[in-house]
Amino acid sequence: MFDLEGYGPSIFKGAILTCEVAFLSLFLAIILGLLGATAKLSNTPPLRAVATGYTTLIRGVPDLVLMLLIYFGGQVVMNAISDWLYDEFGVDYFVQINEFVAGVITIGFIFGAYMTETFRGAFLAVDRGQIEAGIAYGMTSGQRFRRILFPQMMRHALPGLMNNWLVLLKTTALVSILGLADMVRLASEAAKQTHEPFKFLLPVALVYLILTSISEIAMKYLNHRYSAGLVNKS
């Protein structure tokens, strides 16, 4: 069953690429989510409008459409800019959008919108009295965020963060439409060549299940860490 007929090394490399796309996209999504949540909770109307437009647009358009728009549409925009620079200034400059970068940016951009709502709700769930206590002790805004707001917020954000991460992990399979040689694409090609789909697609499913199991363990650790003093560590 596990004789992959010489396709094993290439599928393994595809699995590494899938992990790279997933973790880099998660990092970008968390950064965008924190920025988006901060903007939505700010007292500046333009910031709130931009953040609301971002979350509304991303959550209303299918992931596949966004991925194709950013990759193929982005390349069209880059080509137009290159043509304009050459016609107006004689600058011969061409940018080719990398498939890996496009995949990471698209997935990170999409899930940044979902993370925005997750973090926004978590920030609102923090007891304001703790913030006021930090102010009373003379903490700066940075100290209040690092010592009070972020640890308290994370306890409320972890369930939603975990859900978003698991969906993001499965969404990485979409990068194959950009031409990236991830494990799903390589396994599909091997299955087409050998006419044995179960032999190649079942190991791919197993890899995703392993990543999910590791994520569950990591999330349990984080939940205990950020719930210290609030729940029993049984």
Automatic annotation (TrEMBL):
Species, as recorded: Oleiphilus messinensis
Membrane topology term: Multi-pass membrane protein
Keywords: Amino-acid transport, Cell inner membrane, Cell membrane, Membrane, Transmembrane, Transmembrane helix, Transport
Similarity comment: family membership: Belongs to the binding-protein-dependent transport system permease family. HisMQ subfamily.
GO biological process: amino acid transport
Gene3D superfamilies: MetI-like (1.10.3720.10)
NCBIfam families assigned: HEQRo_perm_3TM
Protein name as catalogued: Arginine/ornithine ABC transporter permease protein AotQ
Principal subcellular localisation of the protein: membrane
Residue stretches spanning the membrane: 15-37, 49-73, 93-114, 161-180, 200-219
InterPro entries according to UniProt: AA_ABC_transptr_permease_3TM, ABC_transp_permease_HisMQ, MetI-like, MetI-like_sf
Subcellular location as annotated: Cell inner membrane; Cell membrane
Single GO MF descriptor: transmembrane transporter activity
Gene Ontology CC terms, in alphabetical order: ATP-binding cassette (ABC) transporter complex
